[in-house]
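Narrative progress, year one. The postdoctoral researcher (J.K.) led the effort to move from monomer predictions toward full complexes, under supervision of the PI. The following entry was the first complex the group processed end to end, covering 952 residues in total.
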Amino acid sequence: MSLSSLVPLIGVSDVVIGLSLGSRLFLIAVGLSLIFGVLGVLNFAHGGFYMLGAYVTLAFVTNVIDNFWLAAVVGALAVGVVGAVIEFAVIRPLYDRVDADLDQLIVTFGFVLIIHETVRFIWGSGSYSVEPPALFDFSVSLGGSSFGAYRLVVVGLAVAVLVGLWLFITQTYFGSLVRGTSSDREMASMLGVDVPRLYTGVFFLGSVLAGLGGALSSPLQSTSPALGDQVIIDAFIVVVIGGLGSMGGAFVGAMLIGMMQSLGPQFISAGSIAIPFLAMVIVLLFRPEGLFGGFGE
Amino acid sequence: MTTVLKTEDLRKQFGELTAVDGVSIEVDDSEITSIIGPNGAGKTTFYNLLTGVLQPTAGSIWLRSGDAAVVGDGDAAGGDGRAGGDGGLRDITDAEPHEVAQAGLSRSYQITNIFEGLTVRENVRVARISHEKTRLDFRSRATGDEALEADIEELLELTGLTDIADTKCDTLSHGEKRTVEIALALAIEPNVFLMDEPTAGMNPTEVTEIVSLIRELDADLDATFVVTEHNMDVVTDISDRIVVLAEGAILADGTPEDVLTDDRVTEAYLGSDSV
Amino acid sequence: MSATTDTGDRVREFGAAVADGWTRERFGLLGAIGLILMAFGPSFQIYLFTDFLVVALFALGFNLLYGYTGLLSFGHGLFYAGGAYGIAVVLRDLTPVFADVVGAGVAPLVAFVVGGVVGLTLVVAVAVPVGWLSVRLEEIYFALITLAFGMLGYSLIIQDPAGLTNGTDGIIVLLGSVDLGGLSFRIGARRTYYVLTVAVVLAATYGTWRVVNSPFGTVCKAIRESPDRAAALGIDVRHHRWMTFIISAAIVGIAGVLRAGLASVASPGLTHWSTSAIAVIATVIGGATYFSGPIVGAFIFLYIRWAISRFPTLEAYWELFFGALLIGVVLYFKQGAVGGLLLARDRLLGDGADDAGGTEADSTDDSRSDDARTDRGDDS
């Protein structure tokens, strides 16, 4: 098989789908990475938060006002509040424990179960889909294949979130406190930073990002109670490959996995879903700080 | 007089910062050596280099191999058979912490580091199991080895811990924990015993007790003691020799009288806000 | 005969111990009677209890690593599945061969035993490299790499590149009927399988108990309390954790073998992280620092789930209960159910209570004070 016969297999639409999958993964993972980078907490319930964002958006669109963008903002903020409450009530008491890391992982795992069942209680076991906003509800034809225009929008939104977050961290006063605290908590505390409040703030922000991710991705996925469990594993893969705590790393890691998911099956059939996990193992062993460096990069 | 521990031009760099800057030192088995210096002088880094926690940027570390009997019949495993290299000294520069300990260098910690959830006796038992190299034996009963139990008993007596032997460590007083710290380090029958701030956080009574314990142990045992200490009364009391570190290098080295009257030492201390 | 006298003495001694308050002997005797009575219970209750025994062994194996060396694995489902698939493949592919060699009458029994050994061997063969790599990491990173290994196994079993695991459907496990001339029985029959499970689980539990109380296990506890202190005493912490990992995986593998027979299928879900999480839930609820913690936790897990399932309106939401319980235990009472039971016993029976469960008590994690941590680099 010559190279020229291989190339046509990769259609433009495959690339766009890969980018949109990657963008969705970024939106799932970025908040997880932010929280780990600053607080050192690996939030197992992050996938649940993401799912909750999608459900709240869905409920808002169907029951309150049929405006997708407004619904997404409401979904994101609602999840942010849930996250802040959880941080304050159950994660904060654990920071000073010897086994803080593992205890926090177990506690947030408890919320995986709780959110899963709560969602099922309210919305049932069925799966829902959300219509993309009317403005983008059309197909784009490119290179002989077509895809929904909203996929391109999600790519744009992911880039916007990355840039916005980067500006927020590097250009604002709150951002400088976050950076300082993530590199040396004790020093920040001595310099008068209210670390517990900052932690709640960062957890709120990370949860907002999770909710926003779920809301913005809702037109691209079917929303069911199983969604949280699925995406948390993807989020773990992305943040490990990109580097736990690194926002830029999360972006590159997400795009890598997204492209792999889109293009991979055309080249390898057997074992293709194993590759991300294999990559995760290899990165953890040889570059536990991730492929793309430290916090905020 | 035998050299038991030696460093040659030991150096440790953290990025731009030189924490230990070319320290060459020989420790003799006939003396208690104290290493002192203001905060930031590099004492902890130096200890971490010796014990294999950190790898030096340059230089080498040599240790006299074999065990110095502490308890039991003195059939110290290893003996002198493994000794090699520089006149019975063995190069431990690249050794990992557990290898350093097995080679005969033991330590206690400035911030108490014992097995808090276990009883005093269990703490010492862990160390003895490690020393007897039965740590991978998963078939016998841990408490079933009579010789081992007798050794534990002897060690508890030696360190005055017999009365609290079956108390869980997290309920002990600070002074008692500091003593367990010493018992643990001694239980592996070291040639050289590095004590990191043995009196840290102690009240005056406890300090008196621990100092007399150290004197007793030094007299009774073959192990060579190296001590870092903030409490200058303790230092002058127990040391035969004092090494002063400042900014990662040796500033002075000699008997307590010589070193403590040395102007440079006074200056190094007064120049910082510690002591 | 002196042997008879010895036996007589022992029986008398045991009897005295049983009569002498709530001793370990009395608990043991009551437990044995309970296990025997259970065999005459209703079929579903036998099934539920067998299920409990298997999950208990699964959690017990997991906890050897978590409770005794401080490493939290989110991938022990891999070894659970390894045992299950090992025996499933042997039963599927080799039963006819055994029938030819040893005769159709005993073939199912031989296949079961060989399958169990193959399952266990397979698990150890996987655990040796997986453990060697995993113990290079600690804490969160260890949890993540074991999760990745588990999901890697899950992906491979699902996609089945070697054509061995039958993809998402899994492999049906048929235990068959044994016919030894006059004696004939079905291995998979509720009561028979219960007796078999009790025997295997008791033996494996006793083995684990011996490991925990051996010099090896004593060193494990020290590593849990302070790895760097253990290293400073000459203990190769990484090597020790590796060995513990392998033993832990082997115990979980035995539980996996039993699981396959009980469920009549080896399914890919066993490798999924949500199965690994069952061991975490049971262990934490029961109390990770006690030998019996995972066993009690598994009991609570299965029987509360069953109790909830009796109420149709609540049935679907049992996970909610365990999520809340898990959070409550970690936040407020990390000694877990066993710690609670010991506390209750002390309260009820006063100080005169015999130290029956006391030997199991090792410590509670959160009672360790913070100064156990060493602070390096404060001087550099």
